[in-house]
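Hey, resending since the last one bounced:
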Amino acid sequence: MKVLVIGGTNFIGKLLVPQLVKAGYDVTLLHRKNKHPYGKKVANLQADRNDPESLRKVLTNQRFETVFDNAYDFERGTTVHHVEATVSLMSDRLQRYIFMSSVAAYGDGLNHHEADALAPDDHPDPYVRNKAMSERMLFRMYHRHKLPVVTIRPPFIYGPGNPFYREQFFWDRLRDNRSIILPGDGRRLMQFAYVKDVVDSMLKVMDEPQAVGQAFNIANPRPVTQEELLNALAEA
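The structure tokens again:
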């Protein structure tokens, strides 16, 4: 099976790509650089997924059975139009289009089921808006054109190689014996997912027939308060 990973050199990709190679898949990476750290077993396509013409040049005549769409440009935003342009270049051999979304697509709160409404198109947060609109477009294409889409909605992802300054912030302050101030009373709930669990879930939906056309919230079984989080980090 030929697999395309869009955005596979950061955090999630660093676990996902080696797992795919180990499982024997024919893996191609699409990103903005002309090389990657995975060796000769992984092919390289250089393109900016936010530039449809750039994508067209490298994806025309390419054929993939599975696509992992993990890339999001936090500086410019990756909009529904960018995602739609990517999907339009996929061939009829496509068996799974796995889109990395977020629980942010709901707009607010943690207590959501997958069938809950996503944030509106005019939501003020561009990240929330882009993820929600992209998902709506993908599921429209599923219903109208049988696009074999699956979306993954994790909350905050933690684990080795996290490029976002989250848990490391607390450890740095703990190591420096600096005070840590909790907002409010420390009872605000937060939800997390371990990066390996997210990747395992992505691999499982590759060949699960009933996953097509579905969204999945991937997270630890229960949320924790900010105070519980801090205490767990301090203990670790």
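The radius of gyration is 19 Å.

Sorry for the duplicate.
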